[in-house]
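Budget justification note: compute hours in this period were largely spent on complex prediction jobs such as the one shown. Inputs:
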Amino acid sequence: MTEARDDYVLDVKQSRRGYALNRLCGSLKDADNRRRFSEDEAAYCDAYKLSPEQKRAVLERDWTAMLDLGASIFYTFKLAMLDQKSMQYLGGVFTGMSAEEFASAMRSGGRKFG
Amino acid sequence: MARITWGMATSHVPSIGAAMDNHKTEDPYWKPLFDGYEKARTWMAEHQPDVAVIVYNDHANAIDMDLVPTFGIGTAESYDVADEGWGPRPVPSVVGAPDLSEHMVRELIDDSFDIATFHQLDVDHGLTVPLSVYCPEPGESWPCAVVPVLVNVIQYPQPTAARCYALGQAIGRAIRSFPQDLKVAVFGTGGMSHQLSGARAGLINERFDRMFLDKIEHRPEALTALTREDYIAEAGTEGIELIMWLVMRGAMSDNIARVHDTYHVPASNTAAALALFEDLDSREGVTA
Ligand SMILES: [Fe+2]
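Corresponding output:
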């Protein structure tokens, strides 16, 4: 599994890199697209012109690799919700915890830095 | 002339809306947050505005990476509730205030804020959750019309905190020059500290949040002096949404009084707060 960096700042360069990936994830706001994606994920990735790395990250649900390839969490969250995965689940993925451990860290006041 | 009667700042976390939609506000997880809203909700229900100007950001629902306006205003007669990927929230669609929108666009552009206009806009949780914080049981329709004001907080570089405050001041001038006798409330939304992605996911900085909650009332210049990098470092990549509170604050006069505030961790992955201010300059019989 890819290890997450501290911060992912979606600057213009990252947006350009992640354009196809974010466009695919963003398209899942439409019910028809959710259905089409679920019927054939690989073909859907090709139709949205994902790079081979982006396609692999989507098919394997490598959430951290998606960030490294220019994804924005607001876009990939739509894919997570299609899988019925919560933001606590994703938080756990980025920090090496289970969804339950992450949620419990939040209930104890969140994670402190500095 | 129109008057700004109050300003409310509130987090707009989707799960706060979902807790209301799924009748979970009495669950132990959610009860402290909703109990904290109570006093503000009672006061707001007694001081209903004709129009709410809601400053928020879209989250990949109405705006995608094709075009990212830094500031925008909705100019439509109505706004549908967005399907964000899991079906739209079961809340009424939003009625616009197109005459006020048009006036604001013209005044802002004359005031050197070259703002984008949205004639078609599906509003997401960023706008509808604050409406639900204001009015938990809207029934068939929301109790006020709405002017959506959009701020880019997702793509870097976001506008500076100082620019957001200046935009708020220009919005205040625009509203106060609208020749209709309307009561207007301004909502600033988003925040408080939170980070959704990366190794710092789950970040909460209560010290920073409480400083912000305090200074927003009478020392907003201490907050406009912070850079976007300061906001990201202290409040998290998504905590930069707090700059939208400064738009609300800028729209209000210097003569404000805090009605209520509340702070709670967590709402999902976020520190959630509400701060409500009355604009004393707008009281009946008072002319500024
Ligand atoms: Fe937001």
